[in-house]
Design brief:
7-stranded parallel β-sheet; two-stranded parallel sheet; 48% helix; binds NADP nicotinamide-adenine-dinucleotide phosphate
């Protein structure tokens, strides 16, 4: 029976992906801070989920939970990192910048590394992380969020290169870069740009199954990414 861990499975993209996996026969370790939402998953899917209440900012606890889930599930086929946070913070309030860096940079790195070490030891496995289109440029309203996503994208690319050195070619790294998705943390509320959670999650799940190196979600964001990469700063500063 295939196994997976989803970090950030209590709501939004992580919760949707956890459900897809369960319906596809996976046993899934699900984590998040909101215990009641983890309990709901357990009531709905019983033996298919192993819940662990976890605030990923506590790094020692994150390592402990990772080990506990390994013991409970056995070999792990897939780790999805969907635990993320973002603020509109034009005033550069330090608490919000710090919170973002703790979650999206420090704990993300720990989860990436724990997964990579495990997969290297197993000789197989698939690490997926939900980064963002925000990784491509700076933004005056949410500097820490945009920078943290650039960090994730570069770290994931490094792990992708490292995975290529592992004999057998069975360790995969997938970087998912959504645009706006209608979840509680969506930064922006323009419906034209916003994908429904259902549509985005389906596209993400397809990209995971194909073990894509990276995917823009929804597809229109691939075109937008090309533009974002070439527009000069003097022009983009008018919109970002
Ligand atoms: N929605 C968008 O427009 C969009 C666009 C691009 C990228 N993304 C990325 O997609 C990922 C998922 O976000 P979402 O849109 O699905 O929003 P969401 O519904 O708010 O989901 C975020 C998940 O992360 C978990 N999380 C946050 N901080 C945590 C912490 N300190 N410890 C443990 N878990 C934590 C939350 O669980 P608890 O609150 O229960 O802890 C929740 O399960 C994020 O990395 C986000 O940056 C989202």
């Amino acid at each position: 029976m295939p196994t997976a861990i989803v970090f950030g499975a209590t709501s939004g993209i992580g919760r949707e992906l956890a459900e897809f996996l369960i319906k596809d026969g996976y046993t899934v370790g699900v984590t998040g801070r909101r215990e009641s939402l983890l309990n709901e998953l357990q009531v709905e899917f019983r033996k298919k989920v192993v819940p662990e209440v976890l605030d990923v900012q506590y790094l020692d606890k994150t390592t402990l939970v990772f080990d506990r889930l390994k013991s409970a599930l056995g070999p792990i086929d897939l780790v999805i990192h969907a635990a993320g946070i973002g603020y509109e913070n034009p005033e550069l309030n330090w608490e919000e910048e710090h919170d973002t860096i703790q979650t999206n940079v420090l704990s993300a790195t720990l989860i990436y590394d724990l997964s990579f070490h495990l997969f290297k030891e197993q000789g197989y496995g698939h690490l997926v992380s939900i980064s963002s289109i925000a990784s491509l440029r700076g933004n005056r309203h949410s500097p820490a969020y945009f920078a943290s996503k650039a960090y994730q994208v570069n770290y994931l690319e490094s792990l992708y290169f490292k995975a290529k050195e592992i004999k057998g070619g069975k360790v995969f790294v997938t970087d998912i870069r959504p645009g706006y998705v209608d979840t509680r943390m969506a930064l922006g509320n323009d419906k034209f740009w916003m994908s429904t959670l259902e549509k985005a999650s389906k596209q993400i799940y397809r990209a995971i199954k194909k073990k894509k190196r990276r995917a823009y979600i929804t597809r229109r964001w691939l075109l937008i990414s090309w533009v974002l990469k070439i527009v000069p700063s003097w022009l983009i500063k008018k919109v970002m």
